[in-house]
Q: What sequence folds into this?
């Protein structure tokens, strides 16, 4: 593995008495593409959302690049914002700002968070839109774009802030297979440029062919991890076999 | 004979119109002032009612509950006849403004809060993930979307504010109902006087309601897209 | 504030409650036929009712109260404040109830009507057993909210001499010059009176739902 860029140590998450993640230890190397798969309710999304503190973990240590956050002890607002500087997130429901044009969706965060000038922000935004193949949509409003286009715009928006790691929370689950293909194409291209990616997904072919490593989760725990092709073709655990058999038989 | 009676009635009623008109203008002015001050107050309270600072939250809750829970007439009387006991004497107009602004702020804070909370959670999450500050999130993402949702309800409420200004006769404000009372008391022609007053209100509120209905429809279709 | 004056103010409560309850009851009853007329198949009736509803709702309650008490009351019939209050607020609440019922009617799921038709229920039974009960249940929250508003609106009747909570408050203020205290008591009384209604609105829907088999 290359130099670790994301490390989770003993991270747990519980809501009241309901424990979703008992304890997670995970390391992701720089430039690595990690796919997290598993049945619903296994805690995959929760893990991802705890990583960038959209959900507050209950305990543990999160390290991303040079920022280290100790849950409960050293997790001030400033520290969390430092953490998020290197993390970009793409949501299942896109979450574009509907009342702004596509272009402004991408320029506003740059201007308000990075302090870029409007001109710089617009140039960067147009470059990114071009990269995801949507240069002509710049002045449209999200509602006029298909789901696949909206998700690609969401990816551009996250990339605009220059994160070192991109997080994808079931990016294609809300899309028709046809539209999902566009998004997976962009994600593949992103992986090839060497971006570190952590992807929670149901798309087995993406997991198998694009990701370097696969993590299988069930009941809040990591039950298997390893080389993508190996794990998906021949899972080692009974639970893993059960899940992948169901997936492969669909 | 009938025609003669009608003519004199008509003449008499026509002589009242300037007086009633002056009163109506006052109602409209009061409505405008109340909305200009009351809606920003409602926006403030919509935010502070969820403040993390407990004294601020409780103070807001207190003011909103009273502004909404007490009848407008009682609030008006409180300002005009109650405050003097505490040493503060306000004119009719000032009492009216303070009472109506308090009431408007209280009601509109609920309306606006409803609008702000209707913005999907995903918008907040995306803003957080992008590291937008809390202030920026509110200003650029939540407020523009939430306020749009609240606009039709606010306009509907504006119509109620206008109707509510008629209560201010009770604290000595020479608005249209006060004028009608005056005319009724001197001519004993209560029915025509109040009828014209009613027509004045209907003449403004019915078109306004139709406008609000059209706006509600527009916002609903805009949101659905 | 002495105990006597406090009790005097509170003695206005029964009047306030009485007007509210009677006006609400009258409104809930009369609102039904008005709603039917509003939805009538015959266009002229529908139009007239729509205009009627619009006029009643766009004129402020206080003007209606004055029209009934001074206008009708002085010229045609001799009315006391209580009767005038019930007539005006009854009228206003009937019209508002009609609109609430109409909203409730629309809110009933289409599937309900489809099921009733598939079961071959007669139009009358469809209406009486499927539509009306559900319309009522769906309307309950709106009716509860409206009741609280009506409670506060009845304060207006104090201006025509109804000896309700507000009237007594003003009386005590004039007697004692302690308006701050007196009117605070009045305001607090209205707020406290509205609490049971708010509680009822939140729970009546659930209570009724449990009684009706699901």
A:
């Amino acid at each position: 593995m290359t130099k670790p860029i994301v490390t989770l140590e003993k991270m747990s998450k519980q809501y009241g008495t309901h424990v979703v993640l008992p304890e997670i230890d995970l390391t992701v190397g720089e430039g690595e593409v990690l796919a997290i798969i598993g049945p619903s309710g296994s805690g995959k999304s929760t893990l991802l959302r705890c990583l960038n503190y959209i959900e507050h973990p209950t305990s543990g240590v999160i390290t991303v690049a040079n920022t280290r956050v100790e849950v409960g002890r050293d997790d001030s607002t400033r520290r969390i914002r430092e953490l998020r500087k290197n993390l970009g997130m793409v949501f299942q429901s896109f979450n574009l700002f509907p009342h702004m044009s596509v272009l402004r969706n991408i320029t506003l965060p740059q201007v308000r968070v990075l302090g870029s000038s409007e001109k710089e922000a617009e140039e960067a935004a147009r470059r990114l839109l071009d990269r995801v193949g949507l240069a002509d949509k710049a002045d449209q409003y999200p509602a006029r774009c298909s789901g696949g286009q909206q998700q690609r715009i969401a990816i551009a928006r996250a990339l605009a802030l220059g994160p070192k790691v991109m997080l994808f929370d079931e990016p294609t689950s809300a899309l028709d297979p046809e539209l999902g293909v566009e998004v997976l194409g962009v994600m593949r291209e992103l992986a090839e440029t060497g971006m570190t990616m952590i992807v929670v997904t149901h798309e087995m072919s993406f997991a198998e062919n694009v990701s370097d490593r696969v993590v299988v989760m069930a009941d809040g725990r990591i039950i298997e991890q390893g080389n993508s092709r190996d794990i998906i073709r021949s899972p080692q655990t009974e639970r893993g076999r059960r899940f992948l058999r169901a997936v492969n038989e669909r | 004979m009938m025609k003669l009676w009608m003519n004199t009635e008509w003449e008499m009623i026509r002589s009242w119109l300037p007086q009633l008109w002056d009163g109506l203008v006052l109602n409209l002015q009061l409505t405008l002032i109340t909305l200009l001050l009351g809606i920003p107050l409602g926006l403030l309270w919509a935010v502070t009612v969820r403040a993390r600072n407990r004294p601020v939250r409780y103070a807001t809750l207190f003011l909103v509950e009273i502004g909404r829970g007490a009848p407008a007439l009682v609030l008006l009387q409180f300002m005009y006849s109650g405050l003097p006991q505490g040493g503060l004497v306000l004119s009719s107009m000032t009492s009216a403004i303070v009472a109506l602004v308090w009431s408007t702020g209280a009601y509109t804070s609920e309306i606006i809060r409803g609008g702000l909370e209707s913005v999907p959670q995903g918008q907040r999450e995306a803003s957080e993930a992008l590291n937008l500050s809390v202030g920026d999130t509110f200003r650029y993402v939540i407020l523009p979307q939430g306020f749009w949702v609240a606009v039709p309800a606010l306009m509907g409420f504006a119509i109620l504010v206008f109707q509510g200004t008629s209560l201010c006769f009770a604290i000595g404000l020479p608005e249209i109902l006060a004028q009608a009372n005056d005319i009724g008391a001197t001519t004993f022609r209560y029915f025509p006087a109040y009828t014209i007053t009613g027509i004045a209100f209907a003449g403004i509120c019915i078109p306004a309601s139709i406008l609000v209905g059209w706006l509600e429809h527009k916002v609903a279709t805009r949101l659905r897209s | 504030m002495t105990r006597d004056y406090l009790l005097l103010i509170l003695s206005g409560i029964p009047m306030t409650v009485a007007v509210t309850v009677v006006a609400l009851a009258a409104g809930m009853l009369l609102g039904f036929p008005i709603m039917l007329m509003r939805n009538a198949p015959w266009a002229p009736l529908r139009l007239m009712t729509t205009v009627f509803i619009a006029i009643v709702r766009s004129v402020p309650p206080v003007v209606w109260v004055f029209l009934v008490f001074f206008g009708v009351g002085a010229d045609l019939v001799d009315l006391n404040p209580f009767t005038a209050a019930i007539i005006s607020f009854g009228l206003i609440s009937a019209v508002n109830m009609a609109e609430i019922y109409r909203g409730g009617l629309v809110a009933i799921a289409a599937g309900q009507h489809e099921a009733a038709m598939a079961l071959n229920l007669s139009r009358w039974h469809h209406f009486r057993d499927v539509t009306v009960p559900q319309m009522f249940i769906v309307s309950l929250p709106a009716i509860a909210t409206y009741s609280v508003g009506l409670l506060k609106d009845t304060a207006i009747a104090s201006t025509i001499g109804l000896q309700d909570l507000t009237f007594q408050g003003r009386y005590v203020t004039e007697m004692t010059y302690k308006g701050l205290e007196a009117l605070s008591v009045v305001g607090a009384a209205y707020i406290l009176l509205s609490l049971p209604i708010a509680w009822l609105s939140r729970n009546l829907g659930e209570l009724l739902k449990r009684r009706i088999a699901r």
